[in-house]
Amino acid sequence: MKLIATAREKRRLFTAAVLFFFAGAVGISAQNGPPKEENKREADLIELIKLDPTIKLDIRYATDNNFVGKTVYPEARAFLQRPAAEAVVRVHKKLAADGLGLVIFDGYRPWAITKLFWEVTPEDKRKFVANPERGSKHNRGCAIDLSIFDLRTGKLVPMPSDYDEFTERASPDYAGGTEEERRNRDMLRKLMEAEGFTVNANEWWHFDYKDWESYAIYDISFEEAARN
Questions:
Q1: I need a labelling partner for 68 at 20 to 30 A (CA). Which of 16, 98, 125, 213 fits?
Q2: 24 burial class (0-12, 13-18, 19+ CB within 10 angstroms)?
Q3: Among 51, 108, 121, residue whose Cα is nearest residue 81
Q4: pLDDT for the residue numbered 134
Q5: What distance in Å separates the CA atoms of residue 105 and residue 77, rounded to the nearest whole number?
Q6: Catalytic amino acids?
Q7: Which helix (H) or strand (E) holds 11?
Q8: Which domains does the chain have, with CATH numbers?
Q9: 58 contacts 78 by C-beta, under 8 angstroms
Q10: CB 88 within 8 A of CB 143
Q11: How does strand 45-47 pair with strand 79-81?
């Protein structure tokens, strides 16, 4: 008898395959799971395109076009805690007045993926990735990676570096690049900060939402997040 896997089973198989690949590549040790924290708010993760379908998704980790060169997400979806998601939508609407919009690279990230990123990143580049022993703000649903695109052309506007580029050009304070690149980067930062976000010191595209400490570190799938 031929067995047909359900969508949930396929996602579990995918995650297992990713874990197996990286475990074989770098010798990942057994891990009990994310750090345990108490007295945290209930998760209220919401899919961004449910709030505004005009937000563009470019979820690099659902492809092999990322810094690890392998697909690590089973599907291209972006979630945030609702207050953070609503703030992102407001930024998107402000940009629309100038013929621009937000493109999302990543939002909520399961803790297991943070563990993988840490393991495959060389030690001299680990300032660009979160230590799984502490968890990340992505794991809490309070961090987002994003940029700006032109509504007319659909193309990304120029920035001083590529997304997930582990160089000095990724700094939000990098003084090099062209004037246009710095202007676009600084515009994004100004708009995001006005909505309660703080830019990451090493990555112009990474923003953390206020009150992130009030949420727990999660290791749930996108499918589970969608049911919240």
A1: 213
A2: exposed
A3: 108
A4: 87
A5: 9
A6: 203
A7: helix 7-26
A8: 7-27+43-227 (3.30.1380.10)
A9: no
A10: no
A11: antiparallel
Sequential pLDDT tens for the chain (228 residues): 333 334 444 444 345 445 544 444 444 444 568 777 788 788 899 999 999 999 999 999 999 999 889 999 999 999 999 999 999 999 999 999 999 999 999 999 999 999 999 898 888 888 888 898 889 999 999 999 999 999 999 999 999 999 999 999 999 999 999 999 999 999 999 999 999 999 999 999 999 999 999 999 999 999 999 987
Phi and psi for 21 in degrees, rounded to 5?
A: -60, -50
Q: What is the residue-wise DSSP string for 145-169?
A: EEEEEETTT-PBPP-SS-TT--SGG
The predicted pLDDT at position 16 comes to 45
What are the residues facing 199 on neighbouring strands?
207
Written as six digits, the tokens of 58 are 């470019």
Q: Write down the pLDDT at residue 124.
A: 86
Q: What angle do CA 10, 16, 18 make, to 5 degrees?
A: 105
Per-position DSSP letters for 35-62, written without gaps between them: PP--S-BPP-EEEHHHH-TTSEE--GGG
CA distances from residue 162 to 31, 71, 133, 147, 170 in whole angstroms, order as listed: 32, 18, 28, 10, 8
Cα(49)–Cα(175) distance, integer angstroms = 34
Residues belonging to the chain: 228
| Residue appearing with tokens 């198989």 | 13
The β-bridge relationship of strands 100-106 and 56-57 is parallel
Give the contacts of 191 (CB within 8 A, at least 6 positions apart): 91, 94, 95
What amino acid occupies position 66?
Answer: N
